[in-house]
UniProtKB/TrEMBL annotation:
InterPro entries from the UniProt entry: C-N_Hydrolase (IPR003010), C-N_Hydrolase_sf (IPR036526), UPF0012_CS (IPR001110)
Superkingdom of origin organism: Bacteria
GO molecular function terms noted in the UniProt entry: hydrolase activity
UniProt entry tagged with the keyword Hydrolase: yes
Keyword S-adenosyl-L-methionine found: no
Domain CN hydrolase: 6-244
Key words of the record: Hydrolase
Similarity-based family: Belongs to the carbon-nitrogen hydrolase superfamily. NIT1/NIT2 family.
The protein, known as: Carbon-nitrogen family hydrolase
Length: 265
C-alpha cells in the first residue's frame, strides 16, 4: 500500500463441490501463488463458498463449525505474509444453522469483520439449506471504508447504495456466479460501480460442478465504470492496482451524492 494505491490479487479458482479437504489444499497452493508474483499484493480476495461449493444437501455435515478450520488457515496466512485477506465466503455452521459467511483478516492475522449473505438465491435452493444474515457487511480495506456483498446480493442496488452512503469507497463481492448469466454479472457489477462511484472488486469461481458451469470473469471495476482487470474462464490470479483517490475525483466531477433527492423517493 503506498498512499492511496493498493495492489490486489483475486484468486479465481475451481471449487470441488462437497470436498472441503481438496478445496483447502487447492486454496493453500493458490494463496502461495498469489504472494509469489512480481509485486506482493496488499490484499488478497477469494471466491464464494470455496470450502464446500454448492453441495447443499450435505451442507449441515460438511460446513465448517464456527468457521474454525477456515479461520485458522486464513489468519495464519495473513499474519505470515503481512497481507490483508478477504476470505471469500465459506459454509459456516453455527448452532442455529449454516450461513454463507465472509471473513476479513488484517495483516496481523486478526479477524476484523465478517458478513453473512443476506439475500439467499432461490434459483439454487439456498433458502432451503442456509440461513440468511441480518446485517450489511462493512470493512476497512487498507484503512479505507468499504462494503461486502455476496453474489446474488448485487441484484439489490439498495444494499450497495446503503453501504456507499455509510462511507464505502469500494465494494468486495465473492461469487459462484454460473453460466449463462455473464451479461448480468458484468452489467450489474458495472452499474454498482457507476451509480455509487466506487471500486467494485468481484472474485468468481470457475470450473464445473454437476450441471453448473462457472465462467470466472473476476472483475476489478473503477468508480467511473471502467473495467481495469478481467479474468478469462480458467483458474488464475487476477492482479490489479487501484488508486482510491479516483473515488473523490469521480464524486467531484459528477456530484451524485449531493444531487440525490431522497425525500422524493
Ligand atoms: O443472481 C444470479 O444470477 C446468481 C446468484 C448466485 O449464483 C448466488 O448467489 O449464488
Amino acid at each position: 500500500m503506498s498512499g492511496n494505491k493498493m495492489r490486489l490479487a483475486l484468486v479465481q479458482m475451481h471449487v470441488d463441490a462437497g470436498n472441503p479437504d481438496a478445496n483447502f489444499e487447492r486454496l493453500r497452493l493458490k494463496l502461495e501463488e498469489a504472494v509469489n508474483g512480481d509485486a506482493k499484493p496488499d490484499l488478497i480476495m477469494l471466491p464464494e463458498m470455496w470450502n464446500t461449493g454448492y453441495a447443499l444437501e450435505r451442507i449441515e455435515d460438511i460446513a465448517d463449525p464456527e468457521g474454525r478450520r477456515a479461520k485458522e488457515l486464513l489468519s495464519s496466512f495473513a499474519r505470515t505474509h503481512g497481507v490483508q485477506l478477504i476470505g471469500g465466503s465459506i459454509a459456516e455452521r453455527r448452532e442455529d444453522g449454516v450461513y454463507n459467511t465472509m471473513y476479513v483478516f488484517n495483516e496481523e492475522g486478526v479477524l476484523t469483520s465478517q458478513y453473512s449473505k443476506i439475500h439467499l438465491f432461490r434459483l439454487m435452493d439456498e433458502e432451503k439449506y442456509l440461513r440468511a444474515g441480518e446485517e450489511p457487511g462493512r470493512l476497512e480495506a487498507g484503512g479505507t471504508p468499504a462494503g461486502m456483498m455476496i453474489c446474488y446480493d448485487i441484484r439489490f442496488p439498495e444494499l450497495a447504495r446503503k453501504l456507499a452512503l455509510g462511507g464505502a469507497r469500494a465494494l468486495f463481492v465473492p461469487a459462484q456466479w454460473p453460466n449463462p448469466r455473464l451479461h448480468h454479472w458484468r452489467t450489474l457489477l458495472t452499474a454498482r460501480a457507476i451509480e455509487n462511484q466506487m471500486f467494485v472488486i468481484a472474485c468468481n469461481r470457475c470450473g464445473t460442478s454437476g450441471e453448473s458451469e462457472f465462467f470466472g470473469h473476476s472483475l476489478v471495476i473503477d468508480p467511473w465504470g471502467e473495467i481495469i482487470a478481467e479474468a478469462g474462464e480458467e483458474e488464475t490470479i487476477v492482479r490489479a492496482e487501484i488508486d482510491l483517490s479516483l473515488v473523490d475525483a469521480v464524486r467531484t466531477k459528477i456530484p451524485v451524492f449531493e444531487d440525490r433527492r431522497p425525500s422524493l423517493y
